[in-house]
Every structure is written in structure tokens, then in C-alpha cells.
Amino acid sequence: MEKLRKIVHVDMDAFFAQIEQRDHPPYKNKPLIVGGPLNRGVVSTASYEARKYGVHSGMPLSKARRQCPGGIYVPVNMEKYLRESAKIRKIFSGFTPLVEIIGCDEGFLDVTGCEKLFGDALEIAKRIKGKIYEDTNLTSSAGIGPSKFFAKLASNMGKPNGLTVLDNKPEIIEKIKLLPVSYIWGVGHVTKKELKAMGIDTIGDLADTS
């Protein structure tokens, strides 16, 4: 019988914004928006405090300023963010060679068969999150599942700084069907609006149309 795969998805929490809040203590717990320059361009990352005002990645900065006039707006410092990303990638590769990096702030790790070295998938995810925080003073969210789809869904469910395990048991599938369609990998704000116009709000709604 083929062994069930164990996939861990690790996603940094509001990565760019979190780095700026770490490096500038007055920014902590404040609505912070990374993007630019000035009113041109779009939001790269919004802190969780800014997201409460409806600000999100990809939103025009001019609109973000209208929705969150009291926010702190800082330009993108990609060189700094990539330095932190390199540290995180190194941590990933210390647990398994089977790593798929997505952008600069997340990755999938296939930890199937790593139990004897590092413990089960839950223990590995805990250790990865702990090591990231120890080395960077940044939090991350992790999800565990039998596939990339389930692992990514799990990490989204636990944000920020969470750790969630999902499998394909019938009772778990029923819970997943109730989740907003935006939890699906690749469904952004634009697609979410288009689906809502079609009467599709949950993952279950989408499944029923296929």
C-alpha cells in the first residue's frame, strides 16, 4: 500500500508588513501598508491591522489611503525582504530536500518519511515555525495535509501564527465545503467578486457547479 503523503505548507504572516513592524517598533499593532511609491502603484502587503479596513494586496494605493487614512504607508524594500526569505528557505531545506518555494514568503515541504529524523508532520511543522521565529523574529502559519491543496487550505485557516491539520476524511470534507471560496489557492479578491456575482460564496457552492 502506498504511504499517505505528508505535505506541510508554511506561509509567512503579512511578510513585508511584518518585517517593517519588527524593524520599526512604533509600527507594531498599527495599520501598516507596504507599497508605492506614494499614491502610485498598488499595495504589496497590508498588516492584519490594515486588513480590518478592507485594505488588501493588489489594491491601488490611492484607494487604500481613502479606506485607511490613518495608516502607515512605507515603500517596498525588496532587498531587505529577500534577505529574510533566504533565511527561511535555508530553514526549509534543513528538514527535507523536497521543497517547492512559492514566491518569497511561502513554500511546500514534502516530509513523508522524515519521521525518524524529525518526528511526525505536526512536530516538524512546530519545529519549522519555532526555528523561523528564533532566526528572524517573524511569525508564520503552517498547514498539514495529504496534498498541496489540503496543506495550503489548512495554513489559510490558521492565520495568523497558526498550525492546522487537515485530511480527506468525510467529516473534514464537509467542514471544508462551508469555508469561503477565497480560501482556495489562487482565488483572489477579483475572482471572489466574480464568483459571488454567480451566487458562489463557499467551497461547497463551487463544488456543486462542477
TrEMBL record:
Gene Ontology MF term list: DNA-directed DNA polymerase activity
Q: Which PROSITE patterns match?
A: UMUC
Q: Per its UniProt record, what InterPro entries does this chain match? A: DNA/RNA_pol_sf, DNA_polymerase-Y, DNApol_IV, Rev_trsase/Diguanyl_cyclase, UmuC
Cellular compartments per GO CC:
cytosol
One Pfam family in the UniProt entry: IMS
Name any Gene Ontology BP term.
Answer: SOS response
Q: Which Gene3D superfamilies does the UniProt entry name for this protein?
A: 3.30.70.270, 3.40.1170.60, 5' to 3' exonuclease, C-terminal subdomain (1.10.150.20)
User: Which SUPFAM superfamilies does its entry note?
Assistant: DNA/RNA polymerases
> Which CDD domains has this protein been placed in?
PolY_Pol_IV_kappa
**UmuC domain span:** 7-188
PANTHER family, sorted = DNA POLYMERASE KAPPA (PTHR11076:SF33), DNA REPAIR POLYMERASE UMUC / TRANSFERASE FAMILY MEMBER (PTHR11076)
> How is this protein named in the record?
UmuC domain-containing protein
Q: Which organism is it from?
A: marine sediment metagenome
